[in-house]
Amino acid sequence: MNTRTATTTGILAAIFAVGVLSAARVEAQADKAKAPTTLTTFWSFPGPANSMTLVVAGQPQPVTVAINSDLSFGGVCAHCTLNQPFKANETKMMCKPCGCGKTNAVCIAWKDLKQSTWEEMIGSFPVGIAMKATFNTQGDPASGLKSLWVDRRTLLVPVDGMVGKTPAEVNVFVKAIGGVKGELVDGDKRLVINLKSEWDADQAPKLEKALAKMGAKIVRPEAVAQK
């Protein structure tokens, strides 16, 4: 085999390999899209080890869920923008999709972390970042948590002072912060926002400012504890 033939063969093999990987990613994403999910956002760490409390759309009160080593986390890597799934016990492992040299936790936290634990990762997300949860029984948090996928194009924000706001008023507010569509849910106590682009910590202050202009605010755990 001459050099040109060998080179051509190598190129074709590489193209084939990329095609197979791309097809696998598409298939994986299709399967993930079919899986029923519930919109949630981080609320607090309740105290017991290996657990956290989430605000769950459709549930009147925050729900505490157990975190075990088999739980799947996922999100978009800050460095290569590829979808990156990993287990709860793999947060400190190095990122594989792009070889950036960062941990899995850092890649989807979009900021440097000291220890790269799952707790540090979750606690680093801007307030309201949505996490799409898959429960062992669809829509039932009590059945146990199977996976959490960070969705930076969606916010689920616990709010106070938005009761009675019209859809038109909500959408004016949403567009002012770079959103596409907004909706009050769960008795007007939570605000769901679909965004044009990924949300990060640098954009978070404008959410609070926009809510303040409407006479509203984000509800946080400490505010609930004081009532």
Which properties best describe this structure?
single chain, 10 strands, 10-stranded mixed sheet, 2 domains, Alpha-Beta Plaits, globular, alpha+beta, 227 residues, disordered N terminus
How would you characterize the overall build of this protein?
With 227 residues, the chain is α+β, with helices and mostly antiparallel strands. The protein folds into two domains: 1-34; 38-226, Alpha-Beta Plaits (2-Layer Sandwich). Helix content is 31%, strand content 32%. It is built from six helices and ten strands, in the order αβββββααββαββαβα. It is globular, with a radius of gyration of 20 Å.
Q: What's this, in brief?
A:
The chain has 227 residues and is α+β, with helices and mostly antiparallel strands. The chain has helices at 3-34, 104-109, 118-124, 167-176, 204-213, 221-226, and strands spanning 38-44, 51-56, 63-66, 72-76, 83-87, 129-137, 140-160, 179-185, 190-195, 217-218. A hairpin with a 4-residue loop joins strand 8 and strand 9.
Q: What is the radius of gyration?
A: 20 Å
CATH architecture of the largest domain: 2-Layer Sandwich
- Intertermini distance: 80 Å
Query: What's the rounded overall pLDDT mean?
Result: 83
Q: What portion of residues is helical?
A: 25-40%
Q: What is the CATH C level class of the largest domain, in words?
A: Alpha Beta
Strand content: 25-35%
Tally the beta strands. 10
Shape verdict: globular
Largest sheet: 10 strands, mixed
H-E string: HEEEEEHHEEHEEHEH
